[in-house]
Amino acid sequence: MMKSQMMEALVWLGPRNMVQRSEPVPHLAAGEVLISVGAVGICGSELSGFLGHNSLRVPPLIMGHEGAGQVVQVTEGPFATGEAATAGARVTFNPLVVCGTCDRCLAGRSNLCRRRRLVGAHRPGAFAQYVAVPARQCYLLPEGLSLVAGSLAEPLACSIRAVVHSGVKPQERLLILGAGPIGLLAVAAARLQGVEQIIVSDVMPQRLDMAREWGAHEMINAREQDVVAFVQERYPGGVDAVIDAVGATSVRAQAIRAVVPGGRVVLIGLHDEESMLPANYLIRQEITVTGSFAYTDSDFTKAVDLLVRGVVQPGVDWLEERPLSDGPAAFAELVDGKARAAKIVLRPAVPIDGTTESHNEN
Length: 362
Ligand SMILES: [Zn+2]
Ligand SMILES: [Zn+2]
Prior knowledge:
By secondary structure, this protein is an alpha/beta fold. 27% of the residues lie in helices and 27% in strands. Strand 16, helix 11 (327-335) and strand 17 form a beta-alpha-beta unit. Helix 4 (153-166) packs across helix 5 and helix 7 (227-234) packs parallel to helix 8. One zinc ion binds next to helix 4.
């Protein structure tokens, strides 16, 4: 790419204000590759960002951290998967760029790196024709795996980590609050761990249908039923573990009241910045409350592996593909609860240099 080249990008300018406009193609630093973005998912964290509720995101910003595409320019260094970075390679990328040398990285908690920088928050993201990322963040996608599937690696990695934090064992009961993408992917991750009793709540019936298709065994429509009363009646004493994939104060309260004494609650939803929690109840019930943030390299590797194995697939029943230019409308629909699909993946336009993706994307 020449320095002067421009690309189309979605730029977030402030609360509910996102425009498509021409932006310079990113310059590559040493060790980075330029990716022609073929697919990029809209994340729940970006919806709160869109509304201006997310302290990590400051306008003007090109968001987009769930991306996959084709490498069009390289500098140096191998991909995360070990292969030499080459133009033409189809990759997904881990957008959490970490230092590898701080105490948290060395302790195996690279998701908590003290110098972490998220693509699409601290540096320009993938709601654009091109994104620059370090080669070592990239995972080569095998032939036959679509870029849309590749773009699911990031949210799947988040869900895998949440399920690990829940400590749920195959014979135990897991309650997942919220059947958005993270909740649904957590159903898939828990099923893969052999968990059979998965209860899911949501306010949208179509999302509960999806949860059923994904292997949850009991659904609760939280608009019609009191989630805690339902759980306590069906499973007297509570469920063994809860994952809150919403993050609203009322839902966090449900999580705590639905778990058994000595049980585990994992908070992954980021809806409310602060919530009041019943501390004395947590003490007397010895409930473990854990935050689950992003993923380590090993969670990400696991996610890519599951996608390669076809365990999670981008079906039309839950995922919708749209052109990049639909981005602002898609954000508004998702924020207002009007989107039909749980997940919307944008497909940025054909790259400037005319390279088209030769693979059949389904
Ligand atoms: Zn995400
Ligand atoms: Zn670090």
